[in-house]
Request: fold
Amino acid sequence: MIDNLLLEEYGANLDVFSKGDFLFHEGDRAKFYFQVRKGKIKMFNINSEGKTFVQGIFKANESFGEPPLFDESPYPACAVAETETTMYKLSKSRFLKLLEQNPNVHLKFTKTLATRLKYKSMLLKEISSSKPEQRILSLIDHIKKETPSKTNEKLIVKLTRQQIADLTGLRVETVIRSVKMLEKEGALEIINRKIYR
Reply:
């Protein structure tokens, strides 16, 4: 998202997190801008019944958890390393200075936040009113739209059935059953246990 050299110029540290390490917990005060260099981070909430709802999975060159840096609110979710992860960590004050002094970066960053907000709105609409199959297709279509590819090329969905469940608010059993139904209907393909659309 933000060029690595620019992050380093503004004093970002490169930290390594082991699988299972938490970067922050829901309710913590936001102090840093985080950007993944290598690895994978999951942001999630756990409801009162113990069900996990994944807010997002972030990979190389993606950032996460930024809104509280702007409005002084606590983090609305937890963030944990899904794999060993190398990450840039920049203090809040230096991050805001970087945006202020680099209008092009600020605009690109604002566009990314707008895309995420649009995705959240779409997902909330689907969760509140759609059948499981429609939720799954909406998630896959969103991923496809955000993934650069050739025009007619099928997208391989690089999410596990559990991750799809966590991202759509469904049970994994429901995802498995719905994916099989969608395959029978021709809405997607399963090749070597991988989903294509």
Summary: The two ends are 26 Å apart (CA to CA). The chain has seven helices and eleven strands. The CA atoms of residues 76 and 83 lie 22 Å apart. The helical segments are 4-9, 67-71, 92-101, 103-129, 132-146, 161-168, 172-185.
